[in-house]
Amino acid sequence: MLRCPVCGREYRDMKRMRCGCGEPLEFKLFKGEPYIGKNVWERFWDFWPIEPDLDLSLGEGDTPLIKSRKLGRELGLELYFKNETANPTWSFKDRGTFLGITAALKFGYKAVGTVSTGNMAASVAAYASRAGLKAKILVSESASDEKLKAVSVYGASVVRVKGDYGRLYFESLRLGERLGIYFINSDNPFRIEGYKGIAFEIAEELTPDCILIPTSSGGLFRGIAKGFIELKESGLIDELPMLVAVQAEGCSPICRAFKEGKEKIERFENPKTVAKAIANPYPPSGNALLKLLREFGWKCVAVSDGEILEAQRELSEEGLFVQPASAAGIAALKRLELPEGSKVVSILTGSGLKTLSHAETGKTAECPLESLEKCLGG
C-alpha cells in the first residue's frame, strides 16, 4: 500500500509515483525482524515492498562504515564515514535503482528511464543493461560530455533536452505512462525503499547520535529516515538519531524554506554551486522532507562552496576521495554544536572520480633518472 507523506491519502496501485495532491508517494511502514543473510537484502527481507531479484544484483549495499582517524579526534567526536562510493557505479543510487529495476521487470516493462545528469543516470543505465531492458536517460542540454560517457557506455539512449530542467521530471512521468517507460526518478517509491538499507547497515554496527545527509531531491533523506523509523517501530532500536539535511548555500531551497518557517519550498532561482550533485532548484521531495524535519525536530544546514571544498580536502587526508556534494556533510558538521564524544555518521554519497574537474591535486615533480636518489630523499 502506498501513501502520501503529506496529505495521507492511500493508493493500491504500486506503479503510481505521485499523489493527486502533487506530492511523492511512499510505501506504508514495514515491521519485521532481521535474519541471517549474506547481504542487506536477505538480512532485512521483511522490510522490502517487493521480493528483491538477487540475480539482478551487482553487489550494491553493505558498504564500509569507516571510523575517522584524524578529523573526529580534532573535533572531539566519534566520527564515521558511510562510504557509498563503494557501490557498483560509485554512488548510493545503486541501492534504489536495484529495487526499481526489480519492480519494472515485475510490472512487465521493457524500458526504464530517469532524469539525471550524473550518478542516477549511470546507475539506471548499468542496471538496465544487466536486466536486458532499454534505458532512456534524459539530461539537460548543459550536461557535460565527460559525465555522459559514463552513461552511454552501458548502451543507454541519452537524450539532451532543451528547456526548463525542473519541468522535465514531471514531463518524464507523464510521457513514461503514455509510452510504457518506467521512470526510476529521484523519489520513485522503490528507490526510497532501497535507501533504507543505509539505515539498516548503520544500526547493525553502532547507535549513532547524528547522521549528516547531503540533500538534493530529498529522496535519500526520506529513505534513511524511513529506515530508522521502521527499525524503531519494530523495536530494533530505542531512539531515532538526529538527522541533518545538508545543502549547498548556492542551491538550498529546502534549508531556506525550513529557516523561514514555510510549509512548502519555493524554486531557488539562479543556482550556483560546485556541488552539482545536490543542486536541485526545485526538489520533488522538498515538501515531504520539510514535514519530516518539523515532525521529528531534525535540522537543515546550508554550507558554502569554500567549506565544501575544504571538507573534500580533509576527507582526502582520511584516504577518501569524494565528489564535492559528498563532502557537504563534513562541512556542516563544523556548524553543529554537538556534545563532545557524540557518535556521528556522515554519508559519502559519490566518488570524486565522477568530478575530476573540481579535484584539488598536488604538483607533479620531474626528475632525471640519474638524480632519482636525490629527488626521493628531498
Distance between the termini: 66 Å
* β-sheet strand percentage: 15-25%
Strands side by side in the biggest sheet: 4-5-13-10-11-12
How would you classify the helix and strand content by structural class? Answer: alpha/beta
Please tally the β strands and state the result.
13
From the alpha carbons, calculate the radius of gyration and give it in angstroms.
21 Å
Describe how the helices and strands are arranged.
Blueprint: E1 2-3, E2 10-11, E3 26-27, H1 40-43, E4 65-67, H2 71-75, E5 78-83, H3 93-107, E6 111-115, H4 119-131, E7 134-140, H5 145-152, E8 157-161, H6 165-179, E9 181-183, H7 189-205, E10 210-214, H8 219-233, E11 242-248, H9 253-259, H10 286-296, E12 299-303, H11 305-316, H12 324-333, E13 343-348, H13 372-377
Parallel strand pairs: 5-13, 6-7, 6-9, 7-8, 10-11, 10-13, 11-12
Antiparallel strand pairs: 1-2, 1-3, 4-5
Q: Describe it for me?
A:
The chain has 378 residues and is an alpha/beta fold. It has 2 domains: 65-90 and 189-357, 3-Layer(aba) Sandwich (Rossmann fold), CATH 3.40.50.1100; 91-183, Rossmann fold, CATH 3.40.50.1100. 37% of the residues lie in helices and 15% in strands. The protein has 13 helices and 13 strands. Strands 4-5-13-10-11-12 form a 6-stranded mixed β-sheet, with helices on both faces. Strands 8-7-6-9 form a 4-stranded parallel β-sheet, sandwiched between helices. A 3-stranded antiparallel β-sheet has the order 2-1-3. The longest helix is centred in the middle third of the chain and has 17 residues, at 189-205. The chain is globular and about 70 Å long. The model has no long low-confidence stretch (mean pLDDT 93).
